[in-house]
Amino acid sequence: MAMAYVLNNCDTLKKGAKNNAAVLSVLRGESMGELIQPGTQNLTSLRIAGLYGHNPLQNHILDALPPEDFRRLLPHLEFVAMPFGMTVCEADSQIRHIYFLTSSIISLLHDMKDGSSAETAVIGNEGALGVTLFMGGGKSLNRATVKSAGYGFRLKASILAEEFARGGALQQLLLRYTQTLLAQMSQTAVCNRHHSVPQQLCRSLLLTLDRLPGNEISVTQSSIAAMLGVRRESIAEAAGKLQEDGLIQYARGHLTVLDRSGLEARACECYLGLKHDYHDTLSEKKVS
C-alpha cells in the first residue's frame, strides 16, 4: 500500500522535497531517526524516494521521464554521496555506472602529462555522467571530479543498456542531453583560446551558479586556476576586480555572487550561448 503511494505520487515528493522523509516515515509508521542515513547503497524503492529530502526526480533527465518509465528504473537506482574532491572516474577507465546528479556538481577535466589540467565541461542536476556508455565506448574520456559536494543516483551499465535498447524516452533524453554536453565542450575550448581570464572566470562562476540553489559557491582560487588552465595569480587579480566592483564577495574559499546581472555582463558570449543551447535542446520537458 505504501509502496504504491510512493510510486504513484512522485510529483508530490518532488515538490515537497524537504518533507519527503517525514511523509515516508508516516507511511511506514517509522520515526525520523529510523530512516536510512545518506551514503547507503542499494536502497529499496520506498526508501530511495524520501532519503533526507533527496529523490531521483531532482535530476532533470529522470524528472522528464514518463511515469511508467520512471517506475521501471526506480528499483535499480542507487543513492550515492559525492563529497568535494572525490574522483568519480579517471580518464580512460571503464565506466560501470551512469550517474544522475541531484545536488552535486562534477567537473570534467583533461589532464596533461606535465600535471596540468583544464576543465572541459560541468555537469549538475541538468544531466548525467557516463554518456560514453551508450555511445559505443564505455570508457571515460576525461577525469570526473566533484567540484561541489552533494548527492546523486547511479544506474548500473547493464540496466542502462537494457533501457536504452528500448528506444524510448530515456534514450531520447540522453541523446538530447549529449548534444548539449558536446556543445559545452566545444564552446569551452573556443573560450579558453580566445577570451580573457576575467571573462572565463565569469563564465565558470555562472555555469556553477546555474547548478546551485543559491548564490554561494565553495571554491578556491587555486581550484579555479586549475580548471581554467591558467595561473593562480591571474585568477586572484580577476576575482579581486570583481569584488572591488561589488559583483562578488570572496573570503577563505567561500564566494558569494552579489550581482548576477553584472557578472553576466562581464562574461563572454560563451555563457549565454551555452545557456540558450541548453534551453533550446531540452526545453520540451516531457517526452513520450
Could you give the topology of this structure?
Blueprint: H1 2-8, H2 10-15, H3 20-28, H4 45-48, H5 60-63, H6 67-73, E1 78-82, E2 87-89, E3 97-101, E4 105-111, E5 117-123, E6 128-129, E7 143-148, E8 150-156, H7 157-165, H8 169-194, H9 197-209, E9 216-218, H10 221-228, H11 232-244, E10 248-251, E11 254-257, H12 260-266, H13 269-282
Antiparallel strand pairs: 1-8, 2-7, 3-6, 3-8, 4-5, 4-7, 9-11, 10-11
Helix pairs in contact: 8-13, 9-12, 10-11
In N-to-C order, the SSE pattern is HHHHHHEEEEEEEEHHHEHHEEHH
Mean pLDDT, as a whole number?
79
User: Which stretches are low in confidence, meaning pLDDT under 50 for 5 or more residues running?
Assistant: 1-46
Principal-axis shape equals globular
CA(first)-CA(last) distance: 28 Å
In DSSP terms (H or I, runs of 4 or more residues), the helix count works out at 13
Structure class:
alpha+beta
Radius of gyration: 20 Å
| Residue fraction in strands | 15-25%
Summarize the main sheet. 4 strands, antiparallel
**Helical content (DSSP H or I, runs of 4+):** 40-55%
Number of strands: 11
